[in-house]
Design goal:
binds 2-acetamido-2-deoxy-beta-D-glucopyranose, Neuraminidase, globular, five-stranded mixed sheet, five-stranded antiparallel sheet, signal, 6 helices, disordered N terminus
Length: 379
């Protein structure tokens, strides 16, 4: 009777483990934070320290397990808080709040009211500290107030309505600048143009905005806004899934400039921009960056992607593909017995050489358990 749900949940667990994703963010002092990488959280400090040294282990109690799918992190620059979505597979609607000043975590319960945490893209508005998300073709907002710790009264997503454009088969790509949300890769919008939602007036501009200069493709990708020392963002980066180039869109001049694509071409990579850098977290755990400074042609022309060495030495990237569910279940099928042993070994040790294999081992061990349960159920 209860064999079926048990099996189903085990297989869900396999899928979730296979997609478990760390995430990157900056704090308001532009220290680079990496959460859930090799099971730990890291502070890599400011950009000048990335080429050498070792990131600081900031793993502490109250943190989410970072076992969710498509985990995303956001910086509230005004309040110096990092908000995490999908950080805990068992509480997909919760927003986890990290307070960098006190190195403390809290969990904010959130009522979804139609918002689907398994299907959305979102931005955190700079000035209002309000999330806007496009989820299942509907716009929602979530007001974070001035929270640097969870509010016991709870929060709720609010329905804004449908965008002015068709969202059929649209996998949203959202970027924030000047309190405007820029939607890229919208169906029937030409390359180099974006649809715009004006946050303060809750208004969709009727026509797409065109940008001169380099033409970014009408393709799915990742977008992230560059911060200013203070005040709203004026530029955002767009990296198409094929990683062929990095586009920087300036919404003051409405121009696009193109830069080299990341060294690691990875459609599953995530990005986070600071004031003077664009950072990539690849799905194998490698963290790379492109120095970039708004209006500084000399810096930008000389810029090349490099590794954040301090993270690589603290949490060595996996040498295998660990993110696709196919590779997760394939390795489990091959050696389900061996997987259990190696996962036991890695939990006993915090050595970085073991951390290298821990993600694969965890996935394989869970898959092995699921396969064992399957065998049991078939008896
Ligand atoms: C994660 O993202 C992928 C790709 O966008 C999507 O297919 C999948 O449904 C998402 N899963 C969850 C649980 O959010
Ligand atoms: C938090 O709690 C207080 C007191 O219950 C409430 O007034 C406030 O609106 C809540 N929400 C936010 C986002 O601060
Ligand atoms: C740039 O685009 C925005 C959004 O459509 C528009 O409000 C603004 O007037 C444009 N600026 C210039 C200089 O064209
Ligand atoms: C990871 O997977 C991709 C696509 O399946 C493949 O092209 C790439 O060579 C793999 N990388 C490693 C390090 O195995």
């Amino acid at each position: 009777m209860f064999r079926l749900p048990t099996l189903a949940s085990l297989f869900l667990l396999v899928l979730e483990a296979a997609h478990a994703s760390p995430c990157i963010a900056f704090d308001a002092n532009f220290n680079l934070l990496v959460f859930g990488l090799d099971g730990k959280d890291w502070n890599a400090g400011t950009q000048d320290t990335w080429p050498s040294g070792s990131a600081k282990d900031i793993t502490t109690s109250g943190r989410p397990p970072f076992d969710g799918s498509n985990t995303t992190c956001y910086l509230s620059q005004f309040y110096n808080a990092v908000y995490v979505m999908n950080g805990d597979a068992s509480q997909p609607s919760a927003v986890h709040i990290y307070n960098p000043a006190s190195s403390s975590w809290s969990t904010q319960p959130v009522t979804t009211a139609g918002f689907n945490p398994a299907n959305f893209d979102a931005i955190l508005d700079h000035d209002t500290n309000v999330f806007y998300a496009l989820s299942n073709g509907e716009m929602y907002f979530l007001d974070m107030g001035s929270l640097t710790a969870a509010n016991s009264s709870g929060l709720t997503w609010n329905d804004v309505g449908k965008p002015s454009f068709s969202t059929d088969n649209y996998k949203p790509v959202m970027a924030l600048a000047q309190n405007h949300i820029h939607f890229l890769d919208v169906p029937n919008v030409p390359a180099g143009s974006a649809q715009i939602f004006v946050i303060h007036f809750s208004y969709f501009q009727p026509d797409a905005q065109a940008y001169s200069g380099a033409t970014f493709p009408a393709a799915h990708g990742q977008a992230t806004s560059f911060f200013q020392e203070s005040g709203v963002q004026q530029e955002f980066a767009f990296i198409p899934d094929d990683g062929s180039a990095t586009y920087v869109i300036n919404v003051e001049t409405n121009t696009t400039t193109s830069f080299p694509g990341p060294s690691i071409k990875d459609a599953a990579a995530t990005y986070f921009a600071g004031i003077t850098s664009l950072v990539q977290l690849a799905s194998d755990g490698t963290v790379s960056y492109l120095p970039y400074k708004q209006g500084d042609t000399q810096t930008n022309q000389a810029a090349a992607w490099g590794k954040v060495t301090s993270i690589a030495s603290a949490a060595p990237p996996s040498s295998h593909n660990s993110t696709s569910s196919a590779s997760g279940s394939a390795s489990a099928t091959k050696s389900s017995a061996g997987a259990k042993a190696s996962s036991g070994a890695s939990t006993n040790s915090d050595q970085s050489s073991d951390a290298r294999v821990s993600r694969e081992a965890r996935i394989a061990a869970i898959a092995a358990t699921a396969l064992a349960a399957l065998g049991f159920a078939l008896l």
